[in-house]
Inverse folding.
């Protein structure tokens, strides 16, 4: 059986970047604050991650405003709901990724998409019973979204990757999950929020960050996010490697954010 993720993991620069990220996560997990306050750190990391995910979508709000529940923008609220939903979806991710993505879209796109479209991928034109075709926005300047047929086929391939054994690190799988969902835009709304939530879920469920401590979304916000996805879209080894390395850097930067949370809690 072929292992396409293992081949990606062997691209130049990937192994070194993944090792650096894994070492950063290992150091974070040794922080003494986590012995007593791991759930609180995870909650704060999720809040910061949701804020960052919304900011990537163009809605950047102060963290303190979120704490005071003063922000009612649907993009921000969708990112918060998606983040909160992850803890309930973990055990289903490997077995029923389609179900998980539908749920993530339902909570992320509420208030942005029409109710009948929530949780439903874009319709194939000759299958009207799947829903009506809808326009797909391009907030990141990635170019036209793939046709619904292509998006559906690539989603099936992605689901296969999630269930198949691989020698590749979890970070490589998470990066591919994130990129595919972001560039396919399978739902046509809130796809970026769904993609970043799915990346975090993959890092948790496939073992790199089992306690969901790393604010990886913050790491993406701190980098040229769209540029990395455009590199991935080229399909070249160099472009794919660039994106995987960018995701590894996002994990490392996310660890830095979470370490700051730990330090603040330690100071009281």
């Amino acid at each position: 059986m072929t292992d396409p993720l293992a081949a990606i993991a062997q691209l130049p620069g990937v192994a070194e970047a993944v090792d650096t990220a894994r070492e950063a996560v290992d150091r974070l997990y040794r922080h003494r604050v986590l012995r007593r306050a791991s759930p609180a750190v995870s909650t704060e990391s999720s809040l910061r991650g949701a804020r960052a995910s919304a900011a990537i979508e163009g809605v950047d709000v102060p963290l303190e405003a979120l704490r005071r529940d003063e922000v009612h923008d649907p993009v921000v609220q969708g990112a918060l709901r998606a983040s909160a939903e992850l803890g309930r979806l973990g055990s289903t991710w490997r077995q029923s990724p389609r179900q998980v993505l539908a749920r993530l879209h339902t909570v992320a796109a509420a208030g942005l998409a029409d109710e009948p479209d929530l949780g439903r991928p874009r319709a194939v034109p000759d299958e009207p019973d799947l829903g009506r075709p809808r326009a797909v926005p391009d907030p990141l300047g990635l170019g036209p979204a793939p046709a619904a047929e292509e998006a559906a086929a690539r989603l099936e391939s992605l689901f296969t990757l999630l269930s198949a054994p691989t020698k590749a690190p979890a970070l490589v799988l998470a990066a591919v999950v994130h990129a595919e969902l972001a560039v396919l835009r399978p739902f046509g709304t809130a796809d970026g929020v769904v993609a970043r939530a799915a990346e975090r879920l993959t890092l948790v469920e496939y073992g790199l960050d089992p306690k969901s401590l790393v604010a990886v979304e913050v790491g993406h916000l701190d980098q040229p996010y769209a540029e990395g996805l455009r590199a991935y879209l080229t399909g070249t080894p160099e472009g794919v490697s660039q994106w995987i390395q960018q995701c590894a850097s996002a994990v490392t930067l996310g660890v830095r954010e979470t370490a700051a949370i730990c330090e603040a809690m330690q100071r009281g």
